[in-house]
């Protein structure tokens, strides 16, 4: 099993070995660098990260708790499978949780956070113009994760974070070459404007419509793919 090039994110510096391994391997799984059902050998990972097998096993336990890998006696450890019919299982609770956050005003934005959202969305637009598919998805992912991380309820943040990972994993694996996210940029802008007005009701409607459109697009792509089978 060839592992990706050893590039660690800057914000991983200062974290424990198991945390670095967890976030790095999670990124590989979400972006499709590690494929569904691909076998994972803890000794190979230990050699790769120059650590003992203990932090590898700790990271694997965290990944398994997020349903990104599965371990079983006799079969070892592998990346979990992912099917097109997972769309409803992932997006319906994701939409519901985000709607809950905004309708109950469990989220706050100051100018600093709003400026950060604008910056991410500007970079998102640049990637769309460059047709940089992998970066488009990564920045869309970053926008929505940053948005929900301003929530005042840590449980909702944790649940959404897990659902985001699976949502974007699905998009990277099946739709990276077919999704048109150009409309998402203008939708992001409308969400930001509502947040600037502190109009959480409008923000909740805009976020809900945004994700419902995403689900509609995904289902359309799935239907086309099924017709080709």
Automatic annotation (TrEMBL):
<dbReference type="InterPro" id="IPR036388">
    <property type="entry name" value="WH-like_DNA-bd_sf"/>
</dbReference>
<dbReference type="InterPro" id="IPR036390">
    <property type="entry name" value="WH_DNA-bd_sf"/>
</dbReference>
<keyword id="KW-0238">DNA-binding</keyword>
<dbReference type="Pfam" id="PF07729">
    <property type="entry name" value="FCD"/>
</dbReference>
<protein>
    <submittedName>
        <fullName>GntR family transcriptional regulator</fullName>
    </submittedName>
</protein>
<keyword id="KW-0804">Transcription</keyword>
<dbReference type="GO" id="GO:0003677">
    <property type="term" value="F:DNA binding"/>
</dbReference>
<dbReference type="InterPro" id="IPR011711">
    <property type="entry name" value="GntR_C"/>
</dbReference>
<dbReference type="GO" id="GO:0003700">
    <property type="term" value="F:DNA-binding transcription factor activity"/>
</dbReference>
<feature type="domain" description="HTH gntR-type">
    <location>
        <begin position="15"/>
        <end position="82"/>
    </location>
</feature>
<keyword id="KW-0805">Transcription regulation</keyword>
<dbReference type="InterPro" id="IPR008920">
    <property type="entry name" value="TF_FadR/GntR_C"/>
</dbReference>
<dbReference type="Pfam" id="PF00392">
    <property type="entry name" value="GntR"/>
</dbReference>
<dbReference type="InterPro" id="IPR000524">
    <property type="entry name" value="Tscrpt_reg_HTH_GntR"/>
</dbReference>
């Amino acid at each position: 099993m060839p592992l990706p090039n050893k590039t660690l994110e800057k914000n991983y510096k200062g974290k424990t070995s198991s945390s670095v391994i967890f976030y790095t391997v999670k990124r590989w799984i979400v972006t499709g660098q590690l494929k569904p059902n691909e076998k994972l050998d803890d000794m190979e990972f230990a050699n790769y990260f120059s650590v003992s097998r203990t932090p590898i096993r700790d990271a694997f336990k965290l990944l398994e708790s997020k349903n990104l890998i599965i371990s079983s006696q006799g079969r070892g450890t592998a990346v979990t499978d992912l099917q097109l019919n997972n769309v409803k299982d992932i997006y319906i609770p994701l939409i519901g949780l985000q709607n809950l956050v905004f309708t109950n005003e469990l989220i706050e934005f100051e100018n600093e956070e709003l400026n950060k959202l604008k910056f991410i969305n500007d970079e998102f637009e640049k990637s769309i113009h460059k047709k940089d598919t992998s970066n488009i998805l990564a920045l869309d992912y970053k926008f929505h994760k940053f948005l929900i991380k301003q929530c005042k309820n840590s449980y909702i943040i944790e649940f959404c974070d897990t659902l985001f990972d699976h949502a974007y994993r699905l998009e990277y694996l099946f739709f990276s070459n077919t999704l048109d996210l150009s409309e998402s940029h203008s939708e992001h802008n409308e969400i930001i404007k509502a947040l600037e007005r502190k109009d959480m009701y409008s923000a909740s409607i805009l976020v809900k419509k945004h994700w419902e459109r995403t689900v509609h697009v995904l289902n359309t792509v799935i239907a086309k793919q099924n017709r080709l089978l």
